Structures are given as C-alpha cells and as structure tokens.
C-alpha cells in the first residue's frame, strides 16, 4: 500500500512539472523566444541554484535572484523584484504542489491568516512603498532584512533542546492577529524586493509559536508561492504590468525551477538541516558585505541599513519572548498531543 502511495505521489509531482513545461513550451513556440537563452543564460544558471535553495530551505528563489541581479548584474531593482515574483509563482507553487501531493504537514491557520495579511502587504508594497524607495535603498533593504534573519537563525539554533510542536497546540484571536500582522509586513517586503513573507512567517512559526522547522519550512514555501502568484497577478493584471525584461528572464528560467525546487526538497530530506543553515549564514553575510562594497557610501543609506537590521533583530527577539509566554500558558496534555510527529516527517534528520 505504501509503495502504491509513493508511486502516485511521484507521478503527481511529475504531472505538475509536465504541466508547467507544456504551458511554457506554448509560450516559447508562439513567441519564438529561443534566442533569449543565448543572451540571458546567466539567469538560467542563477536559478538552477536559486530554485534548489528554495526547495531546501525557508528561502524563496527570489532570495538568490534579487541580490545576484541587482548587485552582480546591475539590473534595476524593480525588474529584479518583478522577475522574482514571476519565477516564484511558478517554482514555489510547483513546490507547494509537491508538498500537497506528498501530504507533508503544514500549519493551515498560518497559510490562511498570514496569507491574507501577505495579500494586503504586497499590494501596499508594490503600489505605495516601492515607488518611493531609491534603488540603492531597495538593495540595502533586502540585504539588511536577511542579515537580521541570520541573527534569528542563530538564535533558533542556540536552543537545540527547545520544545517543538508539529501543529498549533492552541489557536485563538491573538495568534490569528499575530499571523496576519506578520503576513502584512512580510508581504510589504515582498512587494519591494520580491521575497520576505516566507522568512518572516518561518521565524514567527519557529520562534513565536514553537513549530518544528520541518513543518514551518513547507508552510513558508506554500505561503511564498501563493504570495508571489498574487503579486504577479496583481501587478500584471491590475497594475502597470510586468516589464519586458522580467518576462525575458522568466522565459529562460521556468524550465529549471520546476525541477530545482523538488530536488532541493529531496536533498535536504536526507541531510542535517545544519548544513543548509551554515550555507545560509555564509550566503547572507556575503550578500551584505557585497552590498556595502558596491553601493554608494552615504550617511542616510548607512543609517537606513543599521535601522533595518536593529528593527529586524528586535522583532525576531520579541517573537521569541512572545513564544515563551505563549508556551507557558498551554496545558501539558495539549502540548503532548501537538508534539506528536506525523509519519510523513518522522524520518527527516534535524539537529
């Protein structure tokens, strides 16, 4: 029975990839976009790694695409942001489809309430905040938010023996409000840089609600896929539309992201998550140092960066304090029930 179930899951995943490839082929043939591979090959290679990381961690593919495009290739942040949303709408939704097919546990209330907040936040970020930020500030915002996230990861890994839940032991109005507010802030950052909802939701689930990373990660993947798709449809349909350059990058990256994300999920399922955490530390630090070297050194930009990092670290610390107080109010019997490990994740190695 288990063998049959696994076969159905694998075929469902393959079906999702084939569906995306078929849609992509129609667009490529109809528009004759094949020559773009000769011009934009560097983005195809970038998203091989970006999609792999997106499947293996709580990061979205935009977390790789945005800094590489803006800092290394000098692409306009608005184009990089739009491309990140477009490519994650495909790659992370494909990963979300994989998660559903494999019946990997997720936190449904977080998907609902953080998802609603993310929809509000990303429209505000796209239409209001992003046009007001100069390109240099947009670039440093991204790297500063990620640096504060690295601090949150460090804090999480300082507590290896902490109590963890596989689902929310208790859910009420206060948790719904917290998830909605975090989703709104994360969505707004996604509307500026192309990603953000995933890392903020992951952090509040792990630090604030004491959810196991093996459940928080697929939850953040589903949320970011939904948020990227919403942002893509909002700006592409209701807003100014997606720039031609973003579409060109999208054409050359779609065929790899629907493979890279599932491969990343498979890779990390067989290894300790500490390997990925160490990689994240290094990549975030390199991104931030590169931004400091490449971007102009002005007092306003420096103060903006320091303020974002400090605000992020403070926010993540407050999540942890909230989580400790939340945990103390939960009866022991309910904790034990919420801590039971579902069979889908019981064999995943976590330090």
Structure report:
- The structure is a single chain.
- By secondary structure, the protein is mostly helical.
- It has one domain (2-28, 40-338).
- It contains 14 helices and no strands.
- The longest helix is centred in the first third of the chain and has 30 residues, at 2-31.
> Which overall shape is indicated by the principal axes computed on the Cα atoms?
globular
Write down the domain tally: 1
Helix percentage: over 70%
Q: In angstroms, what separates the terminal alpha carbons?
A: 31 Å
Q: Helix/strand/pairing class, anyone?
A: mainly alpha
Mean pLDDT: 81
**Radius of gyration from the CA trace?**
20 Å
Strand content: under 5%
Main beta-sheet annotation = none
Number of helical segments with 4 or more residues = 14
Number of strands: 0
In short:
The protein has 351 residues and is mostly helical. Helix content is 78%, strand content 0%. The chain has one domain.
List keywords for this structure.
351 residues, mainly alpha, globular, disordered C terminus
Write the layout of secondary structure elements.
Elements: H1 2-31, H2 36-39, H3 41-56, H4 62-72, H5 77-101, H6 108-129, H7 135-157, H8 173-193, H9 197-208, H10 213-238, H11 244-269, H12 273-294, H13 299-328, H14 332-338
Helix pairs in contact: 1-5, 1-11, 3-4, 3-11, 4-5, 5-8, 5-10, 5-11, 6-8, 6-10, 7-9, 7-12, 7-13, 8-9, 9-10, 9-13
């Amino acid at each position: 029975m288990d063998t049959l179930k696994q076969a159905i899951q694998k075929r469902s995943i393959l079906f999702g990839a084939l569906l995306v490839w078929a849609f992509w082929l129609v667009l490529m043939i109809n528009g004759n976009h094949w020559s773009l591979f000769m011009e934009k090959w560097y983005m195809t290679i970038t998203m091989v790694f970006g999609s792999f990381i997106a499947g293996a961690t709580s990061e979205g593919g935009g977390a790789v695409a945005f800094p590489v495009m803006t800092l290394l290739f000098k692409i306009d942040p608005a184009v990089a942001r739009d491309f990140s949303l477009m490519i994650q709408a495909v790659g992370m939704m494909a990963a979300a489809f994989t998660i559903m097919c494999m019946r990997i546990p997720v936190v449904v209330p977080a998907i609902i309430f953080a998802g609603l907040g993310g929809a509000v936040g990303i429209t505000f970020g796209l239409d209001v905040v992003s046009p007001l930020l100069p390109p240099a500030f947009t670039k440093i915002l991204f790297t500063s938010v990620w640096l504060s996230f690295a601090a949150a990861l460090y804090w999480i890994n300082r507590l290896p023996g902490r109590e963890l839940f596989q689902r929310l032991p208790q859910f009420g109005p206060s948790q719904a409000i917290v998830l909605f507010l975090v989703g709104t802030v994360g969505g707004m950052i996604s509307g500026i840089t192309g990603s953000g909802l995933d890392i903020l939701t992951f952090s509040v689930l792990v630090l604030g609600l004491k959810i196991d990373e093996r459940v928080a990660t697929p939850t953040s993947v589903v949320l970011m896929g939904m948020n990227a798709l919403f942002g893509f449809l909002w700006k592409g349909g209701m807003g100014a539309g997606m720039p031609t350059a973003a579409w060109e990058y999208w054409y050359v990256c779609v065929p790899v992201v629907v493979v890279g994300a599932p491969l990343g999920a498979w890779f990390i399922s067989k290894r300790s998550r500490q390997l990925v955490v160490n990689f994240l530390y290094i990549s975030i630090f390199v991104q931030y140092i590169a931004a400091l070297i490449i971007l102009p050194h002005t007092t306003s930009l420096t103060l903006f960066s320091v303020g974002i990092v400090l605000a992020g670290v403070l926010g993540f610390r407050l999540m942890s304090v909230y989580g400790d107080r939340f945990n103390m109010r939960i009866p022991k019997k309910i904790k034990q029930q919420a801590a039971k490990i579902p069979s889908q994740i019981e064999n995943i190695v976590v330090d």
